[in-house]
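@channel sequence for tomorrow's demo:
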Amino acid sequence: MTHTRQKLLGLLAVQVALFGLASLAHRGILVSGYEHERAAVAETVIAAVLVVGLVICLIKPAATRAVALAVQALALLGVCVGLLMIAIGVGPRTGPDLVLHAVMLVTLVFGLVIARRAGGSAAE
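structure tokens (generated this afternoon):
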């Protein structure tokens, strides 16, 4: 397994955990006071997409780069929609929510950059 593939798999796992924890927080399971059902649903869907991507990458190493690009791009789109909702006042607007979205944004962009630079080498 190449170092790049290991990085991508690790990043996908971190992203799954990040979105999963965000969903639990927005459901009031991890912390109370930050409940927001629509945010929780969106984060659950994004976490599920990332899980499917991670599983595919584990089963089909040759698809790692393409799958990592696809699922992270979709997750990034979701984060951007979330930021738009925050900006227009529809989503939660707390400090922790803004920090969480910033962390999501950074990890996804970082993962996309690594996947993009990987070329065909991520599969080995």
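heads up for whoever presents: Helices lie at 3-26, 37-59, 64-88, 95-118.
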